[in-house]
Design a protein that fits this description.
Strand order of the largest sheet: 2-8-7-6-5-3-4
CATH topology of the largest domain: Aspartate Aminotransferase, domain 2
Strand content: 5-15%
Number of strands: 12
Number of domains: 2
Oligomer: single chain
Largest sheet: 7 strands, mixed
CATH superfamily of the largest domain: Type I PLP-dependent aspartate aminotransferase-like (Major domain)
Shape: globular
Mean pLDDT: 93
Order of helices and strands: HEHHHEHEHEHEHEHEHEHHHHEHEEHEHH
Length: 431
């Protein structure tokens, strides 16, 4: 997808996001995404059409508009057939679709108690919970891949994943499911997903599900090249749709012939894409504005690819500026960053647990008007044994989206410098 119209100006970008709170340095696009005014306007038109004449909308607009959205997503992610693309609320819903399907394999005795699922320790919380709620409760065992952080290279990820596959296969164990993040949420790391999928194929893993919640609009997605059975990504995080919209790719195969939406509606049995397009009376407008989103991203030079490069280049530049100002380090090499980067925070802030990280995040929001997530990294055993003085235990996950300005990051930089100069520690917030 490339730009076909005159490039958007900075003034037009500012106008598209003028509804954002101007007092906040919002460097956390990763959590909830962002939606331009023109897309909000398009969404409201769909909402109004439904409210004006619901029957006409249901019979004459909804299905055809949803199909148009699915066709565009099919093209963007290089799916072979539009029937492989379903639109759901979010990646959590997609995980429920996949894991419910997996659970039936236990009930039908295709899978046996003790069969394994492998997933990253960094997997998003709701997806981890879904694996335990569906797979583990059905009798499966869950093997987590514990990745080091900070990370130095993809080889560390590949090595740890390989060891986890070996553990899962010990004593003749069978690996039924692999859940692989394309970009982990916290800490944020771009995962060599294609290589891990191929490793799973080589080891005979039955079902491979890639959670690319942060991926579309952030990194290139080619579902045929990646080769997983299922792939999901949120459209509202980095692809400018309103909440909530995501796609689920289901590879055409015997594995996908009996996959159903967890909400059973009158469309049950008509295929996942049709089931997902009607789960009862609700607001579908966020899922119908994909054509308008495509028009929006094509206003930028290079289209969505240009936006991805712009965001990645800027987030790396801002991350390097911050670590230089604070005397810290990045959590990953720059080639493992997307439109998000992990920035080490001064050790003297005393971030000693998840509660400290959350308290500091709140303090930055309330006192300095900076919105940014903070990740707590427990000191490594080697750091403790070797007596490292004040290892870095806190990392900020900064995002860059087209609406961000350099001043947003300068405000964050100066806020942390002030806290350091004032001898602030997180212990103060716990009192």
């Amino acid at each position: 997808m490339s730009s076909t119209t005159k490039s958007i100006t900075e003034a037009e970008i500012e106008a598209e996001f003028s509804h954002h709170d101007p007092t906040i340095a919002r460097i956390n696009n990763g959590s909830f995404g962002s939606c331009p005014k023109s897309i909000i306007s398009a969404q409201q038109q769909y909402q109004l059409q439904f409210l004006q004449q619901p029957d006409h909308f249901y019979f004459n607009t909804l299905k055809s508009s949803m199909l148009n959205s699915r066709k565009l997503i099919q093209s963007i992610v290089n799916a072979e057939n539009v029937d492989e693309i379903s639109i759901v609320d979010n990646a959590t819903t997609a995980a429920a679709v996949v894991l419910q399907h997996i659970t039936w394999s236990f009930f039908s005795s295709q899978f046996q108690p003790g069969d394994a699922a492998v997933m990253l320790h960094y997997a998003y919380g709701s997806v981890k919970s879904s694996v335990h709620a569906y797979f583990a409760r059905a009798g499966g065992r869950v093997i987590e891949v514990h990745l080091p952080f900070p990370l130095c290279s993809n080889e560390e990820i590949v090595s740890e994943f390989d060891q986890a596959l070996k553990r899962a296969k010990m004593n003749g164990g069978k690996i039924r499911l692999a859940v692989i993040d394309h970009i982990t949420s916290m800490p944020s790391v771009v995962i060599p997903v294609k290589e891990l999928v191929q490793m799973c194929r080589n080891d005979g893993v039955d079902v491979i599900f890639v959670d690319g919640a942060h991926a579309i609009g952030n990194v290139e997605i080619d579902v045929r090249d990646i080769g997983a059975d299922f792939y999901t990504s949120n459209l509202h995080k980095w692809f400018f749709t309103p909440p909530s919209a995501a796609f689920l790719y289901c590879k055409r195969s015997d594995k996908g012939s009996n996959v159903h939406h967890p909400v059973v509606s009158v469309e049950y049995g008509n295929g996942l894409a049709i089931e997902s397009a009607w789960i009862g009376t609700r607001d579908y407008s966020a899922q119908l504005v994909i054509p308008e989103v495509v028009e929006f991203v094509n206003r930028f030079e290079g289209g969505i690819e240009g936006i991805r490069k712009r965001n990645c280049d800027m987030v790396v530049e801002m991350a390097e500026m911050l670590v230089k100002a604070w005397g810290t380090e990045l959590g990953t090499p720059i080639e493992m960053c997307s439109s998000m980067a992990m920035v080490g925070m001064p050790a003297c802030l005393g971030i000693s647990g998840n509660k400290d990280a959350l308290n500091l995040r709140t303090h930055l929001r309330v006192t300095f008007k900076v919105e940014v997530p903070i990740y707590y990294r427990a000191p490594l055993e080697g750091e403790v044994m070797l007596g490292f003085v004040n290892p870095i235990t806190g990392y900020a996950r900064i995002s860059h989206q087209v609406y961000n300005t350099i001043e947003d990051y300068y405000r964050f930089r100066d806020a942390i410098i002030k806290l350091v100069n004032d001898d602030f520690t997180c212990a103060i917030l716990s009192n």
